[in-house]
């Protein structure tokens, strides 16, 4: 459900169908998609968790995570000023200033800007390497899709600097880059702990992967059951409908799905 309210700037208010939460988006900028929703559902939240979101965009992950557990606090870091401004307005729209704080700045300076000792760090980062080419996309889309502002190594280093020992880093990324992701995580004292592959259909290869890593964690990796997005007829699977709160279903209870 959405409501246009500023056609000049192509802004709209989207109803997240979760705890009455809404988000302001600008279709001229990079809007959130399915990957952010799946990542938010994957995160295991505990009582009073301190969470940091690296590259928060319009603030979708902080809102979805708060919708699942209302005793958490979240700091979202966003480089692009236009997206940061929208995220701040969404926080105000929902009256969540006491739980969610947005910061405008570079992921490479995350610890300086956000502080340290977080229980959880999340990120839905750019999937493509800078060398993949950026085509003719607008700046907002280039930064969101390509590693022009932060590399995978820089992202992992930032997550490691923010987390306390035993804290968890949750990320969604291209399945084809998993070996590289593991290498970078381990180089930043982040031990991969859980992996869940995302398939468009049960018969298709995974295009995305959800994963968690623990700071200074021991060895041991769980491969979780795959997440299938579509049935053979193209409709959403029951799990995806639950995640999206279709038919009035509520997503999770703060304990995650993996």
Annotation keywords:
258 residues, alpha/beta, Rossmann fold, nine-stranded mixed β-sheet, three-stranded antiparallel β-sheet, 12 strands, globular, disordered N terminus, disordered C terminus
Structure report:
- The chain is α/β, with parallel strands linked by helices and 258 residues long.
- It has a single domain, classed as Rossmann fold.
- Helices cover 27% and strands 28% of the residues.
- It contains eight helices and twelve strands.
- Strands 4, 5, 6, 7, 8, 9, 10, 11 and 12 form a nine-stranded mixed β-sheet that branches. Strands 1-2-3 form a three-stranded antiparallel β-sheet.
- Helix 1 runs parallel beside helix 2 and helix 6 crosses helix 7.
- It is globular.
- The two termini are 28 Å apart.
- The N terminus and C terminus are likely disordered.
Query: Unreliable segments (pLDDT under 50, ≥5 consecutive)?
Result: 1-5, 249-258
Number of strands: 12
What does the largest sheet look like? 9 strands, mixed
Query: What is Rg?
Result: 17 Å
Could you name the CATH homologous superfamily? Vaccinia Virus protein VP39
Structural class based on helices, strands and sheet pairing = alpha/beta
CA distance, first residue to last residue: 28 Å
**CATH architectural arrangement:** 3-Layer(aba) Sandwich
In round numbers, the mean pLDDT is 89
What is the domain total for the residues? 1
| CATH class label | Alpha Beta
**What amount of the residues lies in strands?**
25-35%
Taken in chain order, the helices and strands follow as EEEHEHEHEHEHHEHEEEEH
Tally of DSSP helical segments: 8
Envelope shape:
globular
Provide the helix percentage.
25-40%
The CATH topology is Rossmann fold
């Amino acid at each position: 459900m959405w409501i246009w309210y500023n056609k000049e700037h192509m802004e709209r208010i989207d109803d997240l169908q979760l705890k009455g939460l809404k988000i302001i988006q600008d279709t001229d900028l990079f809007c959130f998609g399915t990957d952010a929703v799946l990542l938010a559902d994957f995160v295991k939240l505990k009582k009073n968790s301190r969470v940091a979101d690296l590259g928060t965009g319009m603030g979708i992950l902080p809102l979805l995570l708060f919708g699942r557990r209302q005793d958490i606090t979240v700091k979202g870091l966003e480089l692009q000023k236009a997206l940061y401004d929208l995220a701040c307005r969404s926080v105000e729209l929902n009256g969540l200033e006491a739980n969610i704080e947005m910061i405008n700045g570079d992921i490479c300076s995350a610890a300086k800007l956000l502080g340290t000792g977080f229980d959880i760090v999340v990120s839905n980062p750019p999937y493509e390497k800078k060398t993949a080419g950026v085509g003719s996309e607008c700046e907002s889309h280039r930064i969101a899709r390509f590693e022009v502002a932060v590399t995978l190594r820089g992202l992992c280093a930032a997550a490691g600097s923010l987390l306390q020992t035993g804290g968890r880093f949750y990320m969604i990324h291209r399945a084809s880059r998993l070996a590289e992701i593991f290498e970078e995580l381990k180089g930043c004292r982040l031990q991969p702990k859980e992996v869940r592959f995302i398939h468009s259909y049960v018969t298709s290869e995974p295009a995305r992967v959800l994963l968690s890593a623990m700071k200074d964690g021991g060895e041991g990796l769980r491969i979780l059951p795959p997440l299938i997005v579509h049935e053979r007829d193209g409709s959403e699977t029951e799990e995806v409908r639950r995640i999206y709160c279709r038919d009035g279903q509520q997503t999770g209870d703060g304990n995650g799905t993996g």
